[in-house]
User: What shape does this take?
Amino acid sequence: GLFQSSPERRFISVNPAFSSMMGYSGPEAMRAEVTDISVDLYENPAEFRRIHERLRASGSVTNLETSLKRKNGTIIQVTLNLVLIRDIEEKPVAFFGTIIDITDRREMEKELMQSQQKFRSLFELSPIAIMVHDAAGVLIDENPAAATLFGTPEPGLLAGISLFQLPFLNDENRGRIHSRQIINTETEIDFDLLAQNPHLPIT
Assistant: This one.
């Protein structure tokens, strides 16, 4: 969205994309109905004042994230870019801005974070030993159950073991792992010996 506003906190012009974003029927309706940008559009009027104090001091604001109020009262997250326009006497006469709605992106990021937190909780609390290897087969993480199973006092001490160097993995299974296929194999592990030196190969 694009807009131009006055020092009196009124819109001089707005484009259709911005008026639609904010829930108004069109640019003229938005100009008429928004009589004080700080109150009618900003979730927190004090945020408007802080932004414009910064704008008057520096002349521009870029990639600033804030919360705005749509006509129906719902809150959206946006990124603002603002430029202060002065007259020949250096007095502020207008503000030109661009605005991007990032609400969906922020919601996706929030959901992803919650999903990661949920996975981490399941990972940490699982009674089943779980070990995470990178694309090269090197162990990069294990949960407490895996540490206990391998006789180490805490997770992290097994880091660096290469999955693809383990002798019980034949070439076929290594190829299937590289192809991101699930394998099911059995082996015998001497955990007493392994606990004394967790980096010993498993036979």
The two ends are 64 Å apart (CA to CA).
